């Protein structure tokens, strides 16, 4: 009986196994591929929410973003996720917002129109701008993204820039300085400068070329006729998208007049594609992307002018405006044994995550002049056009005070006002412990992205000149 029961159980088990083997295997429900149009909508939502990481999640590691026409002085090509992150970070910092329209998807390709706003373009008076974009997806990630500015938007930008340049070329009508009145302001040499002074007559400058690595670099310079031996050398660096010739006019030929009065040579170096390879890791200028050796350029010029004119190599100075100021910061940080001191107008040091200089750690005197109303370089820190995120002017000054070993509290003075109709004012903060290299921060209240000059100058943002 037990044997029969065992055989019966064995048969039942075998039959069950055969039935199980014969039963069809359930198949998994296929997951539909991501909808590229829906992904673009999600990307736009992330950008409008200011969520950098969420926006970057839609890009492949080797994605390529292009822009036509490219920004002036830039290639218009960003290769790899980290370069694109720099663009996205800058857009978010500039309070970017976008409206999506004309969304069409064919396979992995999506075309759409973006109407967008950013603080930079709001302040230029051209927002909103419109671009047409095309994104190609691969495995649910953006592989390529092409941005084309519409002709209408491009015309708006060009008209705004032309108006600013025309305004810059219009002299400021002379006004009489107010009569001196008793004041608690500290005595200052600016007080003796009248409001309206005839601009110096442009001197005849020379043009030079020097070989640096594989490149022929060019520059303009002015050497006074009666230059003494061991004379100082001053570099005046143009802004991004500017050039050496424009830097002369931007400074109203003042350096050439001062060179005659004080016996020094002024040199206006020319950047590659009107740009400089400064300390900003995320900068997209041609000089930066090509890794141009601008430090080597300045070193070569110091050596040349020492050979040709006997300049004192321990008295070489650099000043710059905007991108030229950013480059001057690099000289201060990397070659303080060759550049004696710097003056930076309209620029601040990059934030730590955007900082790409080999700082020597050596002290150097520094003058910084920034405007609180600058639409391109935020005085309180944040995103700056072209170069990415920057520190505040105050934090930049404090970086150098720490570098220079300054420990005493600074002294701040309101500089005397020259023109009652001028809404701006200037505060000068000085760190000058005995025996330590001095740091000076001049804050132009309501000042814009300009070279603040007692004669005239309006920068590309169209700001009025500041009189101090």
Briefly summarize what is shown.
The chain is an alpha/beta fold.
Helix/strand layout:
Elements: H1 2-22, H2 36-48, H3 52-56, E1 59-68, E2 77-79, H4 81-93, E3 97-106, E4 109-117, H5 119-124, E5 129-138, E6 141-149, H6 151-168, E7 206-212, E8 215-222, E9 233-237, H7 244-250, H8 254-262, E10 265-269, H9 286-289, H10 294-309, E11 316-321, H11 323-334, E12 341-345, E13 366-371, E14 382-384, E15 388-390, H12 393-403, E16 411-414, E17 425-431, E18 439-445
Parallel strand pairs: 1-6, 9-10, 9-11, 11-12, 12-13, 13-18
Antiparallel strand pairs: 1-2, 3-4, 4-5, 5-6, 7-8, 8-10, 14-15, 16-17, 17-18
Write up this protein:
The chain is of the alpha/beta class. The chain has two domains: 36-152, Nuclear Transport Factor 2, Chain: A (Roll); 193-445, 3-Layer(aba) Sandwich (Rossmann fold), CATH 3.40.50. It has twelve helices and 18 strands. Strand 7 and strand 8 form a beta hairpin. 37% of the residues are buried.
Structural class: alpha/beta
> Gap between N and C termini, in Å?
118 Å
Shape summary: elongated
Number of helices, where a helix is a run of at least 4 consecutive DSSP H or I residues: 12
Rg over CA atoms: 30 Å
């Amino acid at each position: 009986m037990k044997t029969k029961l065992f055989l019966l159980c064995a048969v039942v088990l075998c039959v069950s196994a055969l039935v199980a083997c014969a039963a069809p295997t359930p198949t998994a429900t296929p997951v539909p591929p991501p909808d590229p149009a829906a992904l673009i909508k999600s990307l736009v939502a992330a950008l409008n929410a200011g969520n950098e990481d969420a926006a970057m999640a839609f890009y492949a590691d080797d994605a390529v973003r292009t822009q036509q026409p490219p920004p002036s002085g830039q290639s218009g090509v960003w290769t790899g996720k980290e370069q694109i992150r720099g663009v996205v970070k800058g857009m978010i910092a500039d309070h970017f917002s976008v409206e999506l329209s004309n969304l069409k998807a064919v396979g992995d390709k999506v075309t759409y129109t973006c109407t967008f706003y950013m603080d930079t373009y709001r302040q230029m008076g051209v927002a909103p701008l419109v671009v047409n974009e095309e994104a190609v997806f691969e495995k649910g990630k953006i592989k390529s993204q092409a941005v084309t500015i519409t002709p209408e938007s491009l015309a708006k930008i060009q008209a705004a820039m032309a108006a600013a340049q025309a305004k810059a070329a219009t002299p400021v009508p002379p006004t009489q300085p107010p009569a001196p009145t008793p004041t608690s302001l500290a005595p200052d040499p600016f007080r003796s400068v009248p409001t309206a002074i005839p601009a110096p007559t442009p001197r005849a400058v020379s043009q030079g070329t020097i070989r640096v690595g594989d490149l022929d670099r060019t520059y303009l310079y002015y050497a006074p006729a009666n230059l003494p031996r061991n004379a100082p050398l001053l570099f005046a660096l143009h802004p991004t998208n500017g050039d050496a010739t424009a830097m002369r006019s931007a400074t109203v030929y003042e350096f050439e007049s001062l060179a005659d009065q004080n016996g020094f040579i002024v040199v206006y170096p020319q950047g590659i594609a009107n740009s400089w390879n400064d300390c900003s890791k995320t900068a997209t200028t041609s000089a930066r992307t090509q890794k141009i050796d601008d430090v080597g350029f300045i070193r070569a010029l110091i050596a040349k002018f020492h050979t040709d004119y006997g300049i004192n190599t321990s008295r070489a100075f650099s000043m710059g405006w905007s991108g030229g100021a950013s480059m001057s910061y690099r000289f201060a940080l990397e070659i303080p044994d060759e550049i004696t001191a710097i003056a930076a107008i309209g620029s601040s040091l990059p934030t730590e995550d955007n900082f790409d200089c080999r700082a020597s750690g050596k002290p150097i005197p520094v003058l910084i002049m920034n405007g609180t109303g600058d639409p391109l370089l935020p005085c309180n820190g944040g995103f700056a056009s072209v170069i990415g995120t920057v520190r505040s002017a105050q934090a930049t000054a404090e970086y150098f005070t720490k570098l220079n070993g300054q420990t005493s509290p600074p002294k701040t003075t309101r500089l005397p006002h020259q023109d009652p109709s001028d809404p701006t004012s200037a505060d000068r903060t000085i760190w000058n412990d005995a025996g330590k290299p001095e740091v000076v921060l001049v804050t132009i209240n309501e000042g814009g992205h300009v070279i603040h000059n007692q004669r005239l100058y309006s920068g590309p943002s169209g700001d009025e000149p500041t009189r101090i």
